[in-house]
Amino acid sequence: MIQNLTTVWRFRHFLLALVRLDLRLRYRRSILGVGWSLLNPIAMTIVFALVFSKILGGDDLTRYVPHLLIGLAVWGFLKESATAGSRAFLQSESYIRQSPLPLGIYPLRVVLGQAIHSTIAIAVAVVVTLVYQPYQPEPTDPLAILSIVPGLILMFLVAWSAATIFAFVNVYFQDTQHLLEVAAQLLFFLTPIIYTAGKLVGKAWWWLELNPVQIILELIRTPLMKGHPPTADRLLAGLYLAVVMITLAAGTAAWLRKRVIFHL
Amino acid sequence: MAKIALTDVSLTFTVHQRKRVTLKEYLIQTVVHRRSISTAVSVHALAGVNLSLRDGDRLGVIGHNGAGKSTLLKLLAGIYPPTVGTREVEGKICSLFDISLGFEPEATGWDNISYRAFLQGESPASLRGKMDGIAAFTELGSFLDVPVRHYSAGMMMRLAFSIATAIEPEVLLIDEVLAVGDMAFQEKAQARMKEMMGSARIMVLVAHDLKTIRKMCNRAIWMQQGRVMGAGPTDEVVDAYIASVTRTAAA
């Protein structure tokens, strides 16, 4: 695995050039350009804010809007990484047929592109949060906002691992991508993205503890919404999640790496 | 120092009659009907191949179609992993097969030159010096500013060949004689290949043209159904191959 990572590093110019190409193609031919990556979360936020606060009489907007923006940005990144990542090997078939690069580089291409795309949405969420100041109780430290960094790193590792696993599965089962879309739809409503974790009461606690999206989401939401770093046990949960995902991805890769070429 | 060593290499792969199944079909067939969905046929592409090449070796690979020659090249290039046995290759590899694969259709010729060059291990700094040379060799001129999806097959080949041959390889792997573009480019390409064949430390050439093999190679192997039927100095192996072919034809 270490050897594969150093190879990925040696071929970073190849990787980054393709990531740049993907982004250029994504934003080309649209007047809004990069603005597209903002439009979706902002439009969603407006709709949900209207529905939840005005019609259903939910939380107060200064807390709800940042909550939603962060939730949608993180969710968007994880979901797109998994679904677009599952196409990585099929999309890169011609490179795989030509060059013996470690296969992880192809999901990484997708996830890096998504990461750059999502950075804008996350930045907007951070700025909005700073404007609304939804801290409850008072922030312990204004610099606590920097403590989202471990969460972002863990989020990236989890996304890369998930993309790698699904990319392998997709080579064997062609409906993987559609199943992922369905699963994502369910997970979206089963995760406190558009509602708050407090609304899940009683026996649902274990689900919040085990839901991978929620584990990541909390690491990023806590510093922004509450103004203090995530607690050590939450960080540990994130770390466990990342270790499990990386192990699964590396295991899948070690198991199937030599066979993928014959299935493409 | 470049080196190739294959020890008892066998390659078996499964070919599926249907391209890919869906998870739904798989579950229904295996769980509900308790039936295996596998339509796989396993193919023994290489069996017990031993090969050892050192600096200066020029190996010709001959045999009928489907004898495993191209598979051997792909295995040497590291694309097909051996099922059994070990593959050891030292030195920068340049593979001249499947070269027209893997262009980014939406990107321009220039961009594709850099993607491919990075894939071959160049860095932005080392590429800068070679870029103009590559571009000049393609003779595509202002077409290089156009996305590759507008290229004709011949233009694609020109681009691919110019990039693939821009590095100075230590191990050169060539499949057949490439048909590259029009007559004028064909000649230029042949000259470039000769030059590369001369400068590479090790060359492996797969070709049906026995004259080329005799001229370019000092060693040869003759393959049949994935096995090595004969190995040694070029003339001996080629003569044995011709004798076998004429014998079969006579009988």
Q: What is the makeup of the main sheet of chain B?
A: 6 strands, mixed
Distance between the termini of chain A: 23 Å
**What pair of chains forms the biggest interface?**
A-B, 28 and 34 residues
Estimated helix fraction of chain B: 25-40%
Sequence of secondary-structure elements of chain A: HHHHHHHHHHHHH
The pLDDT mean of chain B sits at: 84
Structural class determined from secondary elements of chain A? mainly alpha
Helix fraction of chain A by DSSP (H/I, runs of at least 4): over 70%
CATH topology of the largest domain in chain B: Rossmann fold
- Helix count of chain A, per DSSP? 13
Order of helices and strands of chain B: EHEEHEEHHHEHEHEEH
Shape of chain B: globular
Number of DSSP strand runs of chain A = 0
Please explain how this structure is put together:
The complex is a heterodimer of chains A (264) and B (251). By secondary structure, chain A is mainly alpha-helical. Chain A is built from 13 helices and no strands. Chain A has helices at residues 2-10, 12-27, 36-55, 61-85, 88-91, 93-96, 105-132, 149-172, 176-190, 205-210, 212-226, 232-256, 260-263. Chain A starts with a helix and ends with a helix. The model of chain A has no long low-confidence stretch (mean pLDDT 86). Chain B is α/β, with parallel strands linked by helices. Chain B folds into two domains: 3-91 and 207-250, 3-Layer(aba) Sandwich (Rossmann fold); 96-200, 3-Layer(aba) Sandwich (Rossmann fold), CATH 3.40.50.300. Chain B is built from eight helices and nine strands. The N and C termini of chain B lie far apart (47 Å). Chain A binds chain B through residues 10-11, 13-14, 17-18, 21, 25, 94-101, 171-176, 179, 257-258, 261-263, and chain B through 13-16, 19-24, 26, 77-81, 95, 98-99, 101-104, 106-107, 111, 114-115, 118-119, 121-124.
